[in-house]
Structures are given as structure tokens and as C-alpha cells.
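explain this:

___
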Amino acid sequence: MSQSAKTKQSNAAFSSLPLKKGLLDNLHTMNYQSMTSIQEQSLPLILAGEDVIGQAKTGSGKTAAYGLGLLNKLDVKRFRIQSLVLCPTRELADQVAKEIRTLARGIHNIKVLTLCGGVPMGPQIGSLEHGAHIIVGTPGRITDHLSRNRLDLSNVEMLILDEADRMLEMGFQDAVEAILAELPFTKQTLLFSATFPKQIKAMTKNIMHSPHHVTVKEVHDNSSIEQHFYQLTNNQRRMEALRLLILQQQPESAVVFCNTKRETQQVADELENLGFSASALHGDLEQRDRDRVLLRFANKSINILVATDVAARGLDIDSLDAVFNYHLAFDHEVHTHRIGRTGRAGSKGSAYTFYTEHGYIISLIEDDLGREIVSEPLPPMSLLHAQPPLPTMKTIQVDGGKKQKLRPGDILGALTANQELTGDQIGKIHITDIRAFVAVENKIAKKALRKITNGKMKGRNFRAWLI
């Protein structure tokens, strides 16, 4: 997807920047022509070696902004760690590393290494022994490697803190400070954050040299998102209201936002007990469980993701039919960011918000909408007898991955052999080092599972099961 499909473009062209030819040529092949607002404002400063504080959120193009900056500065012949990108979660770190590698295709022999928790330490130790130019990782795992003297950051020339506010929310302040102590004083520092709490302001004073502030306000096209509001008198009616709206709208893919981890789990459990296809996403989940929930949701094997704002930050979830605000967000910007997850890339989306009183946040939302918010009536109670929406897909897990040389084409070939199943009945295929996951239409799930377990790929049998 070209970045124009996801973010508002400016008129400035990348070719107007003093970028290396290999980077410009690659941007042209990627159909990256005009810069987004954050890129236009920050890239000239980054390329000039200035420290930058950027207020921008997921989908703004910030990763490409700092990614191009660090790649332009990099000396490939100097095989030392020259750039360090800190991210709050493994998912964001993986996305960032993937985008940097894509941007770097025009420059040969660049090594990008991810260092994150939730995965075995052994392969990371081996990769570190072979060296790298760029490290992308989470603070906890990076401090772990530093404490064991496996990581040398003395040659770092550029430090990027991505989603700095979330790092602090997740309790990484001590880890970040420990990492900063290992870095050279004379380095370029870029900090990107959706919000600017006091801790962030204090941090920037200590680690940055005369930084330039760049702010890009998140703007959503109200014509692509229909907002609905429901004033409830007590908490008991929330679940009933949520059920009625889901049963009326029958979304294929929706996120329910809650304000606490405990509530997130309770809402997901209650929806599941009532026959809905729902899973919780919050900070108390083990990484393995979190990965599985996200994978199944992306595959459309789960209809409803119930999440906290912190857990959902940094996730790039496209094609959402609806967003439900189980409670009104504490912050107006957070509300804007929540509803912006639907109605993306020119598609239509809907947002449904429950509130108890017409307070300050509602007034700010009214300013955005340019109209007074009037509570709508809930759907009729008779809908409570309706059938909950069912996922259109199921996910098959295969006990083999990249290490067994499995590729998406092998799985697709096994499923479509003898033409019993067709390619349009098969959804996303995701392959990790030792596992593979494939989404298939609900009605063919059992047949697809038999074809994989009874057939052969790469000349051998693989175990598989539905998850």
C-alpha cells in the first residue's frame, strides 16, 4: 500500500530533500512521492542533524521520517551499531524494523537487528555476535543484553524514542535511563510521542540539545466515520447496550475500548459467555497469548477485540467496521485516536460511544463535529434474542515455519491441490520461524485441515490444528 492511502499528504516531494540516491530511487519504486505532514516538518531538521520532538501517532508516517533520517546518516562500511530505536512493544518494534528494512532496499548490506522480550534469548545472542548497524528493540530486553555485556552502544550516533509516552506508561523509565547512560553524549536524539506528560518534558530536558518541536494534529474525515452517542444512567446497562448494538450492526470486525485492564477482561469474558466471538487485549496477557489474539483478529477468526488504549496503541488495524467506546475516554485526543481506527483508507466506519453526563470531553467532541451531541435511542430489546455475529474465517496453525523452509506458496498449493478448494476461500498466511498460520473460510475449515494434515509440503507431513 502506498502511504497516500493511509495518511494525509503534503505537496512537498521527497526528491526535494538531500537524500542518498539509493534511498530516493527506492522511494520512487515504493510509490512514495509526496511527504506526509510529519515528514515535511521533521525530515529537513533530522537530515540537518538537529534533535527533534515530534507529536504524531500511528499512521502519520513518522517511522519513514526517522527511518530515512537514520539510513541517510548511516555509514555501511562502518560495521558498528550506529542507530538505536526504542519501542514500547514487540509488535511496534517488529513493524519499525520491517519498515526500515523496506526503506533500506536501495542500500546494500545494511543489517537491522530486533531485540525484544517475549522471544528466546539464544538467537539474539548469536545475532549480536555477528554485529549490526541498527538496533530496534524494547527497553527491557536491551537493558538485559547490556547488563550481560553483550551490547556495545558506544558508537551510536542517533537515538530514536518511538511512542515515548507509552514507554513511561508501561513502567520503562528506569530501563530507558539505564540505556541512556550507555550512549555517547554527542548523538542526535529524536523523540516521538502521542501525548506529552510531565515525565516526557523532564526527559527531553535531560537528553536533548535545543530540540525542535514538530506537531501534527490527528484529523479524521468526519464524512468517513459516523459517530453515534448513547447516554446511559448506570453501569448495569452498558453490557446490554453493547450487546444490542453489536446484534443490530453485526460487525465482521470491531474493537471495544475499555478504560481498565480488569474491565477489558470482564467485558470480553461476558461477551464470550453470551455466545459472541470476543477476546481481550491488555497489558497482563503473556506475549504468546497476545500474539495469538492479534493474529486471529487480523485473520477475522475473532469478530470483537476488547482492548485498553495502552494495549491497542501502535497496532495497525485496518478494515474495522466499528469502534465501541464502552466508557468515554479520559482524554479528548484519545477519543479521536480510538475512532480513527475505523473509516480508514477511504472506507466507511462507525463509532458508538457510551457516556453518563454531558461533560468537558463531550463538549470538545461537539467542537470537532460542529454539532450538538444528542443521545440516540438504543435498538429494541427484542434484538437480545438474535444470533451473535460469527467469524467468517477460522485459523489453522501448522507445526512448521521458515526453519522448515515453508513458504506461503507451499501452504496455498497444498490447500488448492486437486482444485477441491479455491484460492478465494483462503485468507491471510503468516509464517514465523517455527509456526505457520493460515486463515480459511469457516465452511471449509475441517476440509482444509484434513488437506494439510494428510498431504505433504516440502516432501514431508506437518501436524496442524484449528486455533
About this structure: The domain at 222-385 is CATH 3.40.50.300 (Rossmann fold). The mean pLDDT is 87.
